User: Fold this.
Amino acid sequence: MSDRPTAGTARPLPVLNALVVGCGQIAGGYDSAMPQRRSAGVFSHAGAYRAHPGFRLLGCVEPDTARRTAFMEHWGIPQGFADLEAALASGTVFDVVSVCSPDHAHTPQLERLLHAPVRGALCEKPMTTDPVRGAAVAAAWTQAGKTLLVNYSRRFAPGIRALAAELESGVWGPVQHVTATYTKGIRHNGAHMVDLLRFLLGPLTDGPVLRSRPDYRPDDPTVDAVLYTAAGAPVYLVGAGHEHYALFEAQIVTPCGRIDMEDFGFRLRRQPVEDSRRFPGFRQIDAAGTVTDTGLDQALPAAVDALYQAVAYGTVPPCGGVEAVAAEHLCDSLRRKALSLPPERTIA
Assistant:
């Protein structure tokens, strides 16, 4: 039986000590700029920890002294460190760690934390830049009985979770095809899209890469490609240049209508099939449809709460290392295919 307190009990929540590694935007910057932001919500790890009664935010790691100092002052963090080793050697027991460092540092830091007295981690995407090494890390965390979550944030949004349940129930019929548009690297932001598509559609296999653009880093191009669901439905992955603006949208076409994910996943538009108002005997999708908010502005608090429930009470988190590595392995396969394309299929 779970030891989790039930509603109405006076038993206090156990409080866990948290450490944030990396002091950039996702670590706290998106929320420290809140007065200039036009929308409500919590969009950073520090903001989510501060809003949760079960966490005490005790430390941060950042090699840039000025950035580290500003982060500590804004969030009222008592301890700051130039590197992870200094934090682990400080004598403070950190129960959980948020890994918000650059992509290439995620896996080595998770390997180090595996051998520290840390009970859980919430890692930013991608968890790894080497899927083979990442799979070993995910398996090692599981074997050690420690909790590893990866912040593929849309998995934690209640509206997107409801859509996944709808698709699985069959109320929309079998998926006919999907078109998904993203920017800024197949491994960097593309992993968000591929993980989301796997969450909504189930396992995917990679098909041909059609073209590539050096949109993010030389070793992480943005690619156009075709994926396939287990039933053989095509999923068209379309890249765009992030130097113009950011895009993250998807459209799912089924026999019963169309579902559009808009505004980076903050909004869903469902357009069921209806009789045509103009042409008797014809069927068409409802032009306006029904628009709903997905709750993505509360995804990080939900992820932090999932971390808390897993560490404190042993619940199973929605997105662990195994799920993350599966998506990232698919992205890496597409990345390697893109890097081998002939010049005429690579665009500037």
